[in-house]
Model the fold of this input.
Amino acid sequence: MSTGSLDKLARLAGADTPPPRWLYNNRWPGRTRKLLQIAYSLLSWLTARGNFLTLKGERLTATSGHVEAFSTASLSIVAQGALVLRKASLSHLANELAIDPATSTRTYLADADVLVVLATRNNTPVVIHVADDQMRGDRYRQGSEWAREAFSRSGNDHLIPRIIDYRKHPVGWMLTQQRLPGRMIRAGSLSADALVAHVSAAINALPASNPTGTCQSNHAGRKITFTPGLFLSLLENNHLRTFVQEPIKRIEAWLSSAQFETTTAHRDYCFSNVLFSEESASTPVITGIVDWERAGLGAPVGEDALYFAAFAFAHWRGCSPMTVLCMIWDGVQEPTLERMLDMVRTRFKLTELALGHLSIYLWLSHLVRQTDGISRWTEMNRLEWLLQPSQSARIWMEKNPLSET
Done:
């Protein structure tokens, strides 16, 4: 976790000096570092002369998670790890973000130097993302536009937040969007039946079919697309090439020959990016789908649905999502998982063979995201993300040659 998001919050609040980066780095601090953080805040508080802002959060010292801001402080609060920013204020933060100053504001130190603020603007609930990278904001805006177009075909575009404003600020690129109602739910907190019900709601919210992008071939209205070099970064990596060569060849052949429609894919469709109605009901209701930064066109129909089912079951069971994909290839009969996979097959008219290929596609797509961090993989990461999936996928491919699909 980077300190960039904390730095942005401090600057937006008007602090004369942002907290030193060496003191708030990218890992949970040890006892010595935490004592230094407390000493820094104590010194800031004593020299602020009443002009300060206090930040408090369970994981503030690790620069992540929800952070509350106060205009008061005490010795006990500082001793618990709160951060005191001299010459900072809530009014300065509200002015810089162009939000209503008298309403509740929630701030989050997010990943990759991104600060997220939940507030109101002109009495309208908004979410503001502040990031250094303009390309990230561009991707989010473009992905949201693609999603609204795709979901409008089924009348569900109200699930996609509208972009209100996107501009350059001295602290970073600032993207403001509509804040949708609802709450996030942890898969691990649900019973088996409740998990299946929530997964069903998430799958049914997706467009059943929505051709997009440039397509090759057309047979009875069924369209396909294939992006050459989709997994090129994996083949260029010496740590991965041996394990992924055959799966990549297989998926390229499958994508080029299969007859299916393509759609806009979220590509991180999981419980943490889906909002459910806060009203108690026996049937879960989706109220919003957020974080479209990774969205892309030309994805095989069913990609997001399988992603949601696999990651939901993994979080519920307490295992790696890659282990769940192996269960699909290995034919492991797990009743709760099978109920969710059956929803995916039925909703998108997928055969067992298509589901197996789509699972390989998801595994390779996940590896593409991980290539920059391979040098930091633990042996457990290597086992879960590479060795076990490559072995299970290889055995599955041998049993299910493409010529028979």
